[in-house]
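pasting for ref
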Amino acid sequence: MSDSAQDDQARHSLLLIDDVESVLRVLSRGLVLLGFNVHTASSRSAAVELAKQERYSLVLLDIQMPGLSLSETMLSIRAAQADTPILLMTGGADPAVVDHGLALGGIGPVWKPISIPDLNKRICGILDRKGIKDSGQS
């Protein structure tokens, strides 16, 4: 990766939400190595609180998690930052749940396990299409 591409990614803050610690650790490390600023949450309620406090370029949300419903989580994140894309992740959710997440404005889904290079392509493609040039932090 060129220095300028990594510099562009360093301006992007991502919120990674998954209840499986090993998934959070592997994806977070890989994305940090690519130059992204990554915040993690292992619960949907923690993710909603982070979304209220920090501006993100993109949210990566596991579809199947305990706690808040997918609807509550997505609507709360949207209330905090309406224009932030939400990329849905799943290891095999019910197609109806996936469709529900898409109907709420989610993008994807990406299927776990996913390689870091493939995830990077998806993230960069979404950010490019949205015209997001920086993390939006003030």
